[in-house]
Specification:
By secondary structure, the chain is an alpha/beta fold. The chain has helices spanning about 5-15, 30-45, 60-70, 80-95, 105-110, 120-135, 145-155; strands at about 50-55, 70-75, 100, 115-120, 155-160. The protein is globular, with a radius of gyration of 15 Å.
């Protein structure tokens, strides 16, 4: 199975990692929309007490927020530098119930099938769809393998 990651995107976010938590920097839009994303997710799949996987977590803005709402969060990404920033920020902020792993969704699905109640993959799904459309000159609108991998990570009662 091919990894669902763009090496150029991983490199770009690695270079910006040290500014991930600057609310006035390159990630200002993420900081601005995070409360909206968090509330939307919490309404659809209440977070308190749930096991949540955040695919493509980057520097941990959403993952840390979900942990603060009472979820046990696993954030995964393939970019090492943003993960280090996420880990350090969580320690500095005193956030618990949070782990960060450098692993693909595909590999984690093999390691921990049905381990999560909720899976978020907002950046990963957007990138995956962009790559799928580019590869098919816009002809493919669905059929993305990543959705199957994410579903495999959910427990039987979980939500994607």
């Amino acid at each position: 199975m091919e990894l669902n990651a763009d090496p150029q995107e991983l490199s770009k976010f690695s270079e910006l990692a040290h500014r991930w938590w600057d609310p006035h920097g390159e990630f200002k839009p993420l900081h601005a929309i995070n409360p909206l994303r968090l509330d939307w997710i919490d309404r659809l799949a209440p977070l308190r007490g749930r096991r949540v996987l955040d695919v493509g977590c980057g520097g941990g803005i959403l993952a840390e927020s979900m942990a603060q709402r009472g979820a046990q969060v696993t954030g995964i990404d393939l970019a090492v530098k943003p993960l280090k920033v996420a880990k350090l920020h969580a320690i500095d902020a005193g956030v618990t119930g949070l782990e960060y792993l450098e692993v693909s969704a595909e590999d984690l699905a093999q390691q921990r099938p049905a381990a999560f109640d909720t899976v978020t993959a907002l950046p990963a799904l957007a990138e995956s769809r962009r790559r799928l459309l580019a590869a098919t000159n816009g002809a493919a609108a669905s059929g993305d393998e990543l959705a199957d991998v994410l579903a495999y990570l959910l427990s039987l009662k979980g939500q994607l």
